[in-house]
Design a protein that fits this description.
The complex is a heterodimer of chains A (about 250) and B (about 325). With about 250 residues, chain A is of the alpha/beta class. Helices cover about 30% and strands about 30% of the residues of chain A. Chain A has one domain: HUPs (Rossmann fold), CATH 3.40.50. Chain A is globular. The mean pLDDT of chain A is about 95. Chain B is α/β, with parallel strands linked by helices and about 325 residues long. Chain B folds into 2 domains: about 170 residues, HUPs (Rossmann fold, 3-Layer(aba) Sandwich); about 120 residues, Rossmann fold (3-Layer(aba) Sandwich). In chain B, strands 7-11-6-1-4-5-12 form a 7-stranded parallel sheet, sandwiched between helices. In chain B, strands 15-14-16-17-18 form a 5-stranded parallel sheet. In chain B, strands 8-9-10 form a 3-stranded antiparallel sheet. In chain B, helix 2 packs across helix 3 and helix 4 packs parallel to helix 8. The longest helix of chain B is centred in the first third of the chain and has 16 residues. Classes of the chains: A alpha/beta (about 250), B alpha/beta (about 325). Chains A and B meet through helix 3, helix 4, strand 7, strand 8 and strand 9 of A and helix 2, helix 3, strand 7, strand 9 and strand 10 of B. Strand 13 of chain A pairs parallel with strand 18 of chain B, so a sheet runs across the interface.
């Protein structure tokens, strides 16, 4: 089973956001970067599918800056076989441009599965995976929390509001991973050492400007300073009065 | 042409609540563009509630029907929507950023070869261009974007665009369309417990964290939710989801759902940055926690310091009285 996993280097979820001097981007000084958590589920799933099949290859593909090599090495340390970095200093806001670059890279390479995280925790775009599928005319299921594969076909479950959809599809396919799909492994020391020697190809990404122009990045308006209504059950009546008369939500 | 196409959502032949929100958002933009709103429903047959959408600002409601469209059929839906968007020469195509809309919008945008601004919380027309606000970094920053391609494809975060009723009725048409069998087939839907509202769509969300002490104690929150009479859903912090106390579908936060209810009640939740990310756009936040220094009190409009096992049942009792 040959599997591509498309990953992204993102700021850690605990990052305190500071706006850069251009007023349009994140000030990256002092920011710790990690492998996008949803992509970890995709990497883990790829490794399990390869292990289950007993043979195959897991290839990590990323669009990002030179430093994303480190992120790719993290996935290689988990057990992936090799990496490809499509290098760019600036990832466009338009996900379709990223999708085009990734689609051109994974096209005609004989992948049975192309996996993504359901979204990146920096841009919250939820779109590159299904766009790659459409560009390559491949079947696609997004935000899967359960997966079964056998006989050239698959069944996945995806959470929808108030329920779960059960979805059947043929391989090859594009899938995007939701939390809960699996429990990603931690890279062991042996894996980290081995990852240093695994092949990692770096080539320039071909990206257009796209159809989304960033006008500004701002901090959200501060919430008005709240107040403590009181202590214990005795405060409940005052709380209800405020919710009714002041906040007018009841 | 400068019209707006609002893509609606139905389940089992009935329109979902987000549909009125999408029509409301579409109307807002159409007014700025001096344009019309066409609302589009994809279904197996006539859809219950479609005739109400004129009242939210749809000039025309078009239902495209095919027996294969009873359940969500990603490839078939994407094809007919893209075809319609092209044929109608729309300026804007608008979706709900629901589980279905988030899946469908990228497929349609890719088909049309244009950018998608997903999960937006505000939109405007500035100098003839569509601009949007899209929360990034888990809501810790807001990205303002200009869509330079036509059509501008956007999806609206649920619960943000409050439906506005208008004293005007639109026209309706039902058109049967061809559909090739898709490769991706929804073979079934497992419904959650009867009557359970999704946290992303409920107007009141009551979330519990570690302070609940054990899974069985969530019944205290379920009773409070029930007292609100079907408008409230029970959510959970990441800590209790990771501990296996509650399903991931209920998780509010950076690696869970982003919610914007009218009222958010955080119970026994300390307020880690990744939880705040998921609920900071709630209209009113109430925190109940025994630790007066918990960070949740910094974002809460109203706080009650105390033992949740005493405070919440008292609150439930009073809410029951209100709703008689």
């Amino acid at each position: 089973m040959k599997i591509a996993v498309c990953i992204k280097r993102v700021p850690d979820s605990e990052t305190r956001v500071k706006i850069a001097s251009d007023g349009k981007s994140l000030d990256e000084a002092g920011v710790k970067f990690i492998l996008n958590p949803y992509d970890e589920f995709a990497v883990e799933e790829a490794l399990r599918r390869k292990e289950q099949a007993g043979a195959g290859e897991v290839v990590i593909v990323s669009v990002g800056p030179a430093a994303a090599q480190e992120t790719i090495r993290t996935a290689l340390a988990m057990g992936a076989d090799r990496g490809i970095l499509l290098q760019t200093d600036k990832i466009p806001a338009d996900g379709l441009e990223v999708a085009r670059a990734l689609a051109a890279e994974v096209k005609d390479s004989g992948y049975d599965l192309i996996l993504f995280g359901k979204m990146a925790i920096d841009d919250y775009n939820h779109q590159v995976g299904p766009m790659v599928a459409d560009l390559l005319d491949l079947p696609c299921v997004t935000a899967i929390a359960h997966l079964e594969i056998g006989g050239g076909k698959g069944t996945a479950e995806r959470e929808i509001e108030g329920g779960v959809e059960i979805v059947a599809f043929p391989l090859p396919a594009v899938l995007t991973a939701e939390k809960g799909l699996n429990e990603p492994r931690y890279p062991a020391l042996k894996g980290i050492m081995a990852a240093k020697k695994k092949p990692l190809e770096v080539k320039p990404a071909t990206l257009g400007a796209g159809g989304l122009e960033v006008l500004a990045l701002t901090l959200p308006p501060q919430r008005k300073e709240g107040r403590v209504v009181g202590e214990g059950p005795a405060a409940v009546l005052e709380l209800l009065r405020l919710l009714r008369e002041e906040a007018k939500v009841l | 042409m400068s019209d707006v196409l609002a893509v609606l959502e139905q389940r089992e032949g009935a329109l979902r609540k987000v549909s009125a929100e999408v029509v409301t958002g579409a109307r807002r933009l159409a007014d700025a563009l001096a344009a019309r709103v066409d609302a589009l429903v994809i279904a197996a047959g006539p859809v219950e509630g479609a005739d109400q959408l004129g009242g939210f600002g749809a000039d025309k409601v078009i239902t495209l029907t095919n027996p294969a469209f009873g359940r969500y059929a990603p490839e078939g839906y994407a094809r007919v929507i893209a075809d319609r968007a092209r044929a109608g020469g729309y300026r804007v195509v608008m979706f709900a950023a629901s589980a279905g809309g988030r899946d469908l919008a990228p497929r349609v945008a890719a088909r049309l070869g244009v950018a998608l601004a997903q999960d937006i919380t505000d939109l405007a027309c500035e100098g003839g261009a569509v601009t949007v606000i899209h929360p990034v970094y888990a809501g810790k920053a807001l990205l303002k974007l200009k869509l330079t391609a036509t059509p501008a494809v956007v999806s609206l975060r649920p619960n943000v665009f409050t439906p506005v009723q208008r004293p005007k009725a639109g026209t309706a048409e039902i058109v049967a369309v061809e559909a090739a069998a898709g490769r991706v087939v929804v073979t079934g839907v497992k419904a959650a417990a009867a009557g359970a509202l999704d946290v992303a769509e409920a107007s009141i969300v009551i979330s519990g964290g570690r302070g609940l002490k054990e899974p069985a104690n969530f019944k205290v929150l379920e009773e409070l939710a029930a007292a609100f009479g079907g408008r409230a859903a029970v959510g959970a912090s990441r800590a209790v989801v990771d501990a296996g106390w509650r399903p991931h579908a209920d998780q509010v936060g950076q690696t869970g759902k982003t919610v914007s209810p009218t009222l958010y009640i955080a119970v026994g939740i300390s307020g880690a940055i990744q939880h705040l990310a998921g609920m900071r756009t709630s209209k009113v936040i109430v925190a109940i926690n025994k630790d007066k220094d918990a960070p949740i009190f910094k974002v809460a409009d109203y706080g009650v310091v105390g033992d949740l096992f005493e405070v919440v049942p008292r609150l439930t009792e009073e809410i029951r009285k209100l709703h008689g």
